[in-house]
Amino acid sequence: MPCAIPALKSAACLVLSGKRKCGKDYIANLIETMLSELVLSFVVVRLSHPIKSHYASIHNLDLDALLSSSPYKEAYRREMVAWAESQMKKDPYVFARQALENSLAQFSCCSPASTPDVILVSDARRPSDIDFFTEVCGRPNCIFIRITATEQVRVVRGWQYTESIDDATTECGLDALSDWDYRVENNLSGDRHVELLDQLTERIYRILRQ
User: Fold this and answer.
1) How many C-beta atoms lie closer than 10 Å to residue 140's C-beta?
2) What is the rounded (10 degree) CA torsion for 67, 72, 78, 80?
3) Is 157 flagged in the annotation as binding?
4) Is 125 annotated as a binding residue?
5) Where is substrate bound in this sequence (predicted)?
6) Phi, psi (5° rounding) for residue 58?
7) Which of 3-12, 17-26, 59-68, 140-149 has the weakest average pLDDT?
8) Domain layout of the chain by residue ranges
């Protein structure tokens, strides 16, 4: 079971999900800028970070390169995914829990507030990721956002179908989920997604006023 953190029941939790090269990082950056302009405190939780950190340590790899969008990361992706899946069979929430704890620890070192206004999860991939943050923050406080782009656009951005990666749980695990609060088509280069950001602002303030 995930570790329930009662204090986080007061935070808004934005959870982003999407396939490779759909533009998750781009949307996350837009949301980060929005939150900064609203002067709301927030943490960004990158679920892949503890996976890459552990894997790099075990295999003596370049962590910075694994955290980038470089070909170096793609060269190790299949083996890294297989290793992560083996760890999650023992504890489905192991990496989500660690990623959240790491982000909250950094926040507490830099802020006088006990908890952030907003938790931004940049890369949910599995049903267990959704389950974890639903349990920790409460479904009414969660905003689930599915980001999509056409295959043609993803190819232009550098995507190439790879067996055992693009048909794996990390890419397909949330395909059947219907409980998205927002579905975002991210096909146009430079799209600022103003309507989405306005809607998110309203939802976040509604949650924080509860």
Assistant:
1) 12
2) -40
3) yes
4) no
5) 186
6) -65, -40
7) 3-12
8) 11-208
Distance CA 206, CA 210 (A): 7
Q: What is the pLDDT of residues 55-79, one digit of tens each?
A: 999 999 999 999 887 889 889 988 9
Determine the Cα–Cα distance for residues 130 and 169; give it in Å rounded to an integer: 14
* Whole-number average pLDDT of the chain: 93
**Residue 19, annotated as binding a ligand:** yes
90 labeled binding residue: no
Is 25 annotated as ligand-binding?
A: yes
146 annotated as a binding-site residue? no
CATH topology of domain 11-208: Rossmann fold (3.40.50)
Instruction: Print the SS3 string covering the chain.
Output: CCCCCHHHHHCEEEEEEECCCCCHHHHHHHHHHHHHHCCCCEEEECCHHHHHHHHHHHHCCCHHHHHCCCHHHHHHHHHHHHHHHHHHHHCCCHHHHHHHHHHHHHHHHHCCCCCCCEEEEEEECCHHHHHHHHHHHCHHHEEEEEEECCHHHHHHCCCCCCCCCCCCHHHHCCCCCCCCCEEEECCCCCCCCHHHHHHHHHHHHHHHCC
